[in-house]
Amino acid sequence: MNALPRGFVRVMPGVAGGTPVVRDFEGSWKRTPGKAAGGRIRTPGFKDERVLRRAPGESGDHVAWLGAGVEQIREIEAYGRTIIEYGMVRGPRPEDIPQLRAYGYQPDAVARIEEERLERERQLAEMLAAGTTDRSRLSDIVHARYLFWELRDHLREDLHPYGITIDEFFANGKDWLSAFLDDIPAAAITITLTEKSFRNQDKKWKGNDLRDADAMSAAVPYCDVVLTDKYVAAQLAKSPAVRGQGALVLPRLRDLADQLPDLVTGHNPST
Q: Using CA of residue 231, residue 235, residue 241, residue 243, what is the dihedral sign?
């Protein structure tokens, strides 16, 4: 069992008639007197005894901070979440990758998929520039490409519970299919950014463009405020896809100061 920081104890499931067993931060084990719902614990480094309580019937391996209140516990939990999220964003250490690959970890597959997506966008951009694709139908093209590349592997299975066949789905026509995609928040955000990028004839497609679209499609439908770079914020500023979600998309954190009072009032009508 991993060592705990100074001032922490680990409460094990009740044994010997419900008496908690505690491991102090120096690694020694001891059985504490008291009832099943709690007991007095003396650990090195504390001059007085602290009372550690458990809810009746609670079992399992629990960690508590001696003498900590609710706010301190919440602070500890927030710190723990921050560390976990940082670890997820940072990814594995280089020395861990060989072992992870043995478990099936394939980071190169992600890079390969991104490169394939990027190549598709570059090809369409070249076709639009060369005039071999009708730019006046760009909205239809972007919608159709999203439907094919993003939903094709799931569409048949997802339609089955509703008793709809693929043929029946596509028989609704182009306008209905476009409206269907626009009603999917994540799809609408991605399509908006993609179409606007293609309309910029000087745009050079890069991997960050795909990542921006992926990030915005996940953030805008679920967040009240989204901070992104200046270019993306400008593309989404007057987008119906964003207005429909009620999200505030800003390029700078300081821009939030002017918007925050109205945002808070909108979420608390009684104030």
A: positive
Q: Are 158 and 149 in contact (CB under 8 A)?
A: no
**pLDDT one-digit tens code per residue, 15-55:** 333 344 344 333 333 444 433 334 443 434 433 334 344 44
Which of 142, 265, 244 lies closest to 134 in space, CA to CA? 142
| Backbone torsion region of residue 37, taken as left when φ is above 0, otherwise alpha when ψ lies between -120 and 50, otherwise beta | alpha
Torsional sign, CA 30, 36, 37, 39? negative
pTM over 0.70: no
pLDDT for residue 188 is more than 60:
yes
CA distances from 196 to 66, 193, 216, 261 (A): 56, 5, 14, 31
- 38, with CB counted inside 10 A (0-12, 13-18, 19+), is middle
C-alpha span between 63 and 121 (Å, rounded): 51
Q: Is the CB of residue 10 less than 8 Å from the CB of residue 22?
A: yes
Are residues 228 and 251 in contact, defined by beta-carbon separation less than 8 angstroms?
yes
Domain ranges of the chain: 8-90, 112-223
